[in-house]
Amino acid sequence: MLSTQMSDIRSEAPPSALHSSSLEAGWQRQGKLWSNLKELCDLLRIPSAFSVGDEEFLFQHVQFKTGQRIHTIGQPFDTLYIVHSGFLKTVLIDEFGNEQVLSFPMKGDLFGVDGIHTRRYASEAVALSNCDLILLPFKKFTALGRAHIELEHAMYSVMSRELVREQAMVSMLGALSAEARVARFLVSLSDRFAEMGYSSKLFNLRMTRHEIGSYLGLTLETVSRTLSAFNEIGLITVDQRSIGIKDVDALKTLRRLPPSSSRAKQVASKKAKQLAAARIEPDAAPWEPLVTV
Amino acid sequence: MLSTQMSDIRSEAPPSALHSSSLEAGWQRQGKLWSNLKELCDLLRIPSAFSVGDEEFLFQHVQFKTGQRIHTIGQPFDTLYIVHSGFLKTVLIDEFGNEQVLSFPMKGDLFGVDGIHTRRYASEAVALSNCDLILLPFKKFTALGRAHIELEHAMYSVMSRELVREQAMVSMLGALSAEARVARFLVSLSDRFAEMGYSSKLFNLRMTRHEIGSYLGLTLETVSRTLSAFNEIGLITVDQRSIGIKDVDALKTLRRLPPSSSRAKQVASKKAKQLAAARIEPDAAPWEPLVTV
DNA sequence: CGGGTCTTTGATTAGGTTCAATAAGAGTGG
DNA sequence: CCACTCTTATTGAACCTAATCAAAGACCCG
After folding, report:
1. Does residue B92 approach strand D to less than 7 Å at its CB?
2. CATH topology for the A176-264 domain
3. Which of A36, A76, A175, A196 has the fewest beta carbons under 10 Å from its own?
4. Residue B140, CB, less than 7 Å from strand D?
5. B2-148 has which CATH code?
């Protein structure tokens, strides 16, 4: 288990190495990388057919180093960002100076959208690793959208998707237990890594327990404890930032008993190891145990 | 205090009565109401200057009765809705059939946006009172947007605003105590009523404790108890669905001690009555009491 | 190697859920 | 109009999850 930090070397590599990558496109020009519309849409996972000649519209890339701030709260808005490689976090700062993590943008994600309304960014974006971002000057982009209907619709689509994502987040925070939140977080990370072509079974967390906790509405201790618990019952392996997914299905279906509804009949013992869960007695369980089918 | 249900009669009145209202526009035509672009933007609180002649674009109204479903999850998406009058809720249904309330759209709110991405509604919208909604056929709307740049930008703006709203919701669910959530909920309701021209001091809740709880990530019992507690310490008056706001400032500033940060110095005793709070000893409080400045 | 950050783990407490019982309304139909 | 039912709201008591407080290890970087 010494290959823990091998799952996504590329994003850790310096920008110059990105250029020689075979997976992504982007041309060196004026010492920077550029992408065309097609690449943008591929990145955003948006189904779209573009006419030839669109290659002329190029969007500039920018590199950020770990810890750098892409934009801050209140800063005048003028551009959206698409993650080409690397990992980030977006945060809100409350009146006590505490961070509230809103999202962990990674390859293919769009951020900065919250700045459109007030013309100022409502959140802050910080690079959790070296990042390569594509700049989308909003004015230029909407102008382009009028010529390219698909592009305009793509924009609506992406914003709609973000909204649905936030709704799912609200739903999760409002209804799920700590264990379920952490489990879902791991599964979604795993899925994202798979989409990006990395291993979905073994990856490194790019964020601290504190950041995960903030994102999930939990304390860092609870996150740490929950990961340890998952490790103990064999759902995952944990070693600091390195996570190995051992039982995706269990993680996916892990919930808590639905609030105010006591029909916990199927105490299925499908997976014996799940029942070895710490504070759970396999027999004396008129309620739903840690994991359900 | 017998005028409890007088704060917003109009929304309870039958559609025909709406027509004679002096506050909103809308023309009777073909037995239905119609609104033009200008009215739409006013309703959405979007700053915009329209050229003359825009009056020709008319948007149809539709009426729904209390309890009626406007759209359901999975239903093919083709139109957005703007609330002209009345109250609704949008909900997600989880795998156990439990409702998760996402929002309480009211006058000036846009909903249905979550359907754009997958072309199917991701949530369900239900009328909590008799409603008058403006239909926004999405295709027609985007087509119009290309001719009217302001309109296109308005659309982006509204979607961005929704996103910021959801972010604030996530932040609230992740960081605030039950008391703070209920307090903020009341304040935001109060603000909304004020915007609509109703009393911000006395209004009727349109939703059940259960729905409020779902929205805030709490149980109905906690909501009920918290309202009772606020009532006892004089922040509000409660009588079933009727709420009287007595101390907006206290409600606004009510928080809990920030998670993982122990600088709680300003134990300001600005308002004595606040310190009369139930389970709180004014003196023995090295931590932040119920209310802060 | 040393200081700082991050993580793990334990002990304790408190805030909120759950279960339960009662009361208050809102409809419905005789 | 009243009995009956169903939904909604209130309140109490016990329990439990996750937060808080605390301390020790692990890791990183200069």
Report:
1. no
2. Arc Repressor Mutant, subunit A (1.10.10)
3. A76
4. no
5. 2.60.120.10
